Amino acid sequence: MLLVGLLAVILSFLGCHAALRLATRAGMVVQPGERQSHRVATPTGGGLGLLFSLLATTAMLQFFVSLPAFWWFGMVPGVIALAISGWLDDRRPVSSLLRLLVQLVVSLWLVGFFCYQSSVNHFALCAGIVVAMIWLMNLYNFMDGSDGMAGFQGVFAGLAMAALLLAAGDRAMALLALVVAAACAGFLPLNFPRARIFMGDVASVPLGFIFGAMSVYGWFTGAISPALSILIMSVFFVDATLTLIARVFVGERWYTAHNQHVYQRLIAEGGSHSRVLFLYQSINVVLVLPAIVLAAMYTQYAMVTAGITLLLLGACWYTANRLLGIRATRRFE
How far is CA 75 from CA 188, 192, 287, in A? Predict the structure, then answer.
């Protein structure tokens, strides 16, 4: 597992360097603006190297370990379709409707494959999974707006899922989750502590899809319960979801880009990207990780544990918004 992780890190680092050169030549540069948390024009699309590492490493891994058909036939087609859509959007904005259509198609494909393999024919359950998948893709993309934020969350989520899958005896899928975490780690030197390139939609949306798909796989095999899936992504889930609900309640156009997530407000109010990242990952380590351990050990209380954790995170979100005001008012690099 160590060698596989190391290989994924190296390939991701090299691939992201190549993506940086490609993005620079193609003019894929994000300019500073009122909805951005940066004041310096920065290339985007670096996540292309991350995905290259993921696909290349798993292709080589297949010669030694038989990865589940769910990965090759359920997940990989969706990852590739979302990567193409995201790359095009990083080059030149693609309509929201088209992006949503691609997300819907890949979610239906994944759920259809899942239902075929598991003989599930409950329409409401399948429809709920599709909606959850689409939301997870978008919330991961929403939270990719600060140096290191999406990358470190990818490392955390990948390692957490790898540990849970390994504990359940699913070594092959645990290796896949480890590769995801390692690929995210290989991207970080180019994105943290100061971003030389952004991850972009080319990888942030596929990462949301991957974690959602692995959650579906975990439910199917019994390795990762719904409560554990919620906990793993709870920091992103709470900030993105409550911010969306708040925007709806105040009558804003919730489907447009904005800078009102808590992490964006903290940066706008003077907190450095590194400090905000440290705060979010400290919450993961101090609150979320112990909750994951408890939910995994005492499965009968897993949903209660997840509920309490979400309430605590929601209270933190509410307090931060009370302190920061309705929207961020100052900008800083």
Answer: 24, 28, 30
Q: Is the dihedral of CA 95, 99, 100, 102 positive or negative?
A: positive
| pLDDT one-digit tens code per residue, 6-20 | 999 999 999 999 999
| DSSP label of 168 | T
Q: In angstroms, rounded to a whole number, what is the distance separating the alpha carbons of residues 14 and 130?
A: 34
Question: Cβ distance 147 to 333 under 8 Å?
Answer: no
SS3 of residue 93 by DSSP = coil
Taking the C-alpha atoms of residue 50 and residue 61, their distance in angstroms, rounded to an integer, is 16
Query: Quick count: other Cβ atoms within 10 Å of Cβ 44?
Result: 24
Strand pairing class (42-43; 29-30): antiparallel
Q: Are 148 and 277 in contact (CB under 8 A)?
A: yes
pLDDT digits 0-9 by tens, 117-175? 776 677 888 899 999 999 999 999 988 888 999 999 999 999 999 999 999 999 999 99
